[in-house]
Amino acid sequence: MSGILITFCVLAFITVLTAFLTIFSRNPIHSAIYLVICFFSIAGHYFLLNSQFLAVVHIIVYSGAIMILFLFTIMLMNLNERHEVHRPRITRLGAIVSFVLVCVVLIAIFINSKPIVGEYDATGEDFQSINVLGKILLNEYMVPFEFASILLLVAMIGTVLLSKKEKLKK
Amino acid sequence: MESTFIIEKSVVIVAVFALTMLMAMYSTWAERKVAAFLQDRVGPNRAGWGGLLQPLADGLKLFSKEEFFPNTPNKFLFIVGPGIAMSTALMTSAVIPWGDRLHLFGREIYLQATDINIGLLYFFGVVSVGVYGIMIGGWASNNKFSLMGAVRAASQMVSYEIAMGLSMIALLMMTGTLSLKEIAAQQAGLNWNVFYQPLSFLIFLICAFAETNRTPFDLPECESELIGGYHTEYSSMKMGFYLFAEYANMFISATLISVLFFGGYNYPGMQWMVDNVGVNTANILGMLALFVKLCFFIFFYMWVRWTIPRFRYDQLMNLGWKILIPLSIINIVVTGIVILRADIAAFLGF
């Protein structure tokens, strides 16, 4: 077995294991920490695919920002096993259905993007470098990129508005 | 990969590691000396000449202290916390260019552990992970003061990371690269970035203080409110790790400030030295130049610590969110306009 295959197997094992531990561990903080490890191993997968930029951005955004805020809220609310809410069956069903739908969307994306990826392969440019990535994002995919950023901006303003509203009522 | 390459990189990595440790050790000594100087005292002067052996004595003391465990159900996380803090503090040095290159044994040796083209992002990634060390350790201590310290540290570091990243974007728009090696090389001569991006430098400096939890932003460990903050329950070398990690972080951020804004290993007349005296001499002088610059910034950290009192927590958050972030966004816009001034003028029909 080549070194890359061994690394991949170890990483995949860690990813799946910690993903399951995230769901099954009773203590919310332990769950969050397992999820952080899971995110790190996913970043490792990106490194294996030689996309350094994606891996580092993944670490900054998911492990460095989102999970820290998660951990922060869990610590502040002081959740533990006793506070675990019982989820009704309909919620579980809804979760499964939405997961399957996300899977369908992802598969559709992969199938549709395959010919385009092939085209990029043919050009022989280094698409891991941020120079090329930036040029493509702001030329070919300008509109979707801007839409995504507007979506994020709207979400941010919405959050600020929601947190301000309570203050006005007082 | 050839074996000489691996040996060469290993030597560089070990040297950088040793340097970081040595600097962190002697920063504790320098901190006491600077404090003593500013408060008109003598400072440590018993162990060795001028107290130079004091860090060794401190280390020996910390190692021989009793290993204390608080009553916590998370013993593993309690041990992992300082480990994460220490390892992330040491990982950042991998992308810093300590000098340009040396000619040794017929090879060109680049004085950098690794030159990845996303060097600066790597730095931000590692720094953002560093928060975990404090958070996990503080939470696992099972003590409300530790938890308060940990929560403060996390919110402070996350808030200031944003302003730090935004201040970097203005610089990156000018340099056009994320590789620290290229950024350092672009500043040859006296072409230092601080002259072009003074505001960006100021924001970065303030954020670096907040990221390393130094006064005036040392609320996570403010003694008068929280005993010792997140390391209240720690003793022996585990506490030593937290303290050491802080000094290592200070050293790395002082180096990064010198590399990003003050030309790194460049000094006026370096090209002349390379042409006339020799590559090796010129670059050893360059390393010394970087060393002098980073020592100044470490001194600056200490100077500020003993000059400016601690902020209140709401002041800290206001400064981060309402002043530094808008300022860095304005800086980005202004930099963009200046870079594209020719295009804008053409567009407006001048």
From TrEMBL, chain A:
> What Enzyme Commission number does this protein have?
7.1.1.-
What is one cellular component GO term in this UniProt entry?
plasma membrane
Indicate the transmembrane segments per the record: 6-24, 31-49, 55-78, 90-111, 141-162
**GO molecular-function terms, A-Z:** NADH dehydrogenase (ubiquinone) activity; quinone binding
- Topology versus the membrane: Multi-pass membrane protein
Q: According to its UniProt record, which reaction does this protein catalyse? A: a quinone + NADH + 5 H(+)(in) = a quinol + NAD(+) + 4 H(+)(out)
Read off the Pfam families from this record. Answer: Oxidored_q3
Q: What is its main location?
A: membrane
Annotated compartments: Cell membrane
UniProt feature coiled coil, ranges: none
> Keyword set for this entry?
Cell membrane, Membrane, NAD, Quinone, Transmembrane, Transmembrane helix
Highest taxon listed in the record's lineage? Bacteria
Function per UniProt: NDH-1 shuttles electrons from NADH, via FMN and iron-sulfur (Fe-S) centers, to quinones in the respiratory chain. Couples the redox reaction to proton translocation (for every two electrons transferred, four hydrogen ions are translocated across the cytoplasmic membrane), and thus conserves the redox energy in a proton gradient.
Return the similarity comment: Belongs to the complex I subunit 6 family.
Q: Could you tell me what this protein is called?
A: NADH-quinone oxidoreductase subunit J
Organism whose genome encodes this protein = Flavobacterium agrisoli
From TrEMBL, chain B:
What InterPro entries does the record tag this protein with? NADH_UbQ_OxRdtase_su1/FPO (IPR001694), NADH_UbQ_OxRdtase_su1_CS (IPR018086)
| Keyword NAD carried by entry | yes
The enzyme's E.C. designation = 7.1.1.-
Q: Where does this protein chiefly localize?
A: membrane
Give the UniProt subcellular location, in the record's own words: Cell membrane; Membrane
Q: Which one Pfam family would you cite for this protein?
A: NADHdh
Q: What is this enzyme's catalytic activity, as reactions?
A: a quinone + NADH + 5 H(+)(in) = a quinol + NAD(+) + 4 H(+)(out)
Determine if Transport is one of this entry's keywords: no
**UniProt entry keywords in alphabetical sequence:** Cell membrane, Membrane, NAD, Oxidoreductase, Quinone, Translocase, Transmembrane, Transmembrane helix, Ubiquinone
Q: What job does the chain carry out?
A: NDH-1 shuttles electrons from NADH, via FMN and iron-sulfur (Fe-S) centers, to quinones in the respiratory chain. The immediate electron acceptor for the enzyme in this species is believed to be ubiquinone. Couples the redox reaction to proton translocation (for every two electrons transferred, four hydrogen ions are translocated across the cytoplasmic membrane), and thus conserves the redox energy in a proton gradient. This subunit may bind ubiquinone.
The subunit structure is: NDH-1 is composed of 14 different subunits. Subunits NuoA, H, J, K, L, M, N constitute the membrane sector of the complex.
Q: What is this protein called?
A: NADH-quinone oxidoreductase subunit H
Protein source organism? Flavobacterium agrisoli
Taxonomy of origin reads:
Bacteria, Pseudomonadati, Bacteroidota, Flavobacteriia, Flavobacteriales
Write the gene name. Answer: nuoH
